[in-house]
Amino acid sequence: MDYSTILTLCGFSFVAGFIDAIIGGGGLIQTPAMLFTLPQYPVPTLIGTTKIPSLAGSLMGAFQYSRRVAVAGRFIGPMMAIAFGASWLGSWTLSRVPNNFMKPLALVILVSVFIYTLTRKDFGQLAHHVISARRQRWRMWVMGAVIGFYDGFFGPGTGSFLVLGFIALIGFDFLKASAHAKLVNAATNLASVLFFINKGGLLYHVALPMAVANLSGAFLGARLAILKGNHFIRVFFLLVIAATILRFGWDLYTTY
C-alpha cells in the first residue's frame, strides 16, 4: 500500500473526527472512504479497522468536553459500562444475524428527528425540564443499553441518536448532550475495537495513522463546538442528520 493512499485516508479520518466531535456522524465519511479506497480487503476487516481511529477521536472529544462541561458523573459511568456490554452483544449478534432490516427503520426515525428538530427552534438550545435523579438514572441506563446494542449491531447515526436522547429524555442542551454522547460513544467504540481485535485481521498500518488524524480532527471539532455553543451545534446536527438520510436513501434506492 503506497503512502498516498494512507494520506488520503488520513484526510478523510481528520474530517470525520472533526464532525464526529461536534455532533456525531463521522462514520458517514470515514467508513465509505475505507470501502472505496481499499476494495481488495474484506468488509469486516475494513469496518474493524475504522473502529480504531473512531475510538481515538471519541476519547479526544470526551476529554475536551469533560474539561469544560459539567458531566452527570453519578450516572454516566454505569451508562458507559452498560453501553460497552450492549455494543459487544450487538457486534456478536451481527456475526450471526443479518442487519439489512435496520436501514429502512433507521431512515424513518432519522426523517422524523430531522423534521422535529427543524420545526422546534428551541430544541436543545437550553436545558429544560428537570427530572428526578431516579428517572434520570434509569433513562440514561436504558439509553446506554438500546443505543449501545444498535452501535454494535448497525452503527450509523449512533452519535446523533445519543445526542437526541440526552436532549429529549434527560433535558440537556446540545452542548451538554454532545459531551455526554462522546463519553458513551467512546465506550461503544472500545467494545467494537476489542471485538474486532479478537477476530483478528485488522490493518494496523492504516488504522494507527488514521487514529492520529481522527484524534486531531476531534480536538479541533470539540474546541469549536465548545466555543460556538448550542446554535452552532444545532446547525451541525441538522446537516449530519440530512446527510445520513441521503446516504440511507441512496443505499435503499440502489438496493431495491
Instruction: Tell me the overall shape.
Output: globular
Rg to the nearest angstrom? 17 Å
The percentage helix is over 70%
**Poorly predicted segments:** none
Family: Belongs to the 4-toluene sulfonate uptake permease (TSUP) (TC 2.A.102) family.
Pfam family, one: TauE
InterPro entries: TM_pro_TauE-like, TSUP
Subcellular location: Cell membrane
Explain this structure to me?
Helix 1 (3-23) runs parallel beside helix 9. By secondary structure, the protein is mostly helical. 50% of the residues are buried. The protein has one domain (3-255). The protein has helices at 3-23, 27-37, 43-68, 73-94, 102-119, 133-153, 158-170, 174-199, 204-228, 230-255.
Concise account of the structure shown:
By secondary structure, the protein is an all-alpha fold. It contains ten helices and no strands.
Lay out the secondary structure:
Blueprint: H1 3-23, H2 27-37, H3 43-68, H4 73-94, H5 102-119, H6 133-153, H7 158-170, H8 174-199, H9 204-228, H10 230-255
Subcellular location: Cell membrane
Pfam families: TauE (PF01925)
Membrane topology: Multi-pass membrane protein
Keywords:
mainly alpha, 256 residues
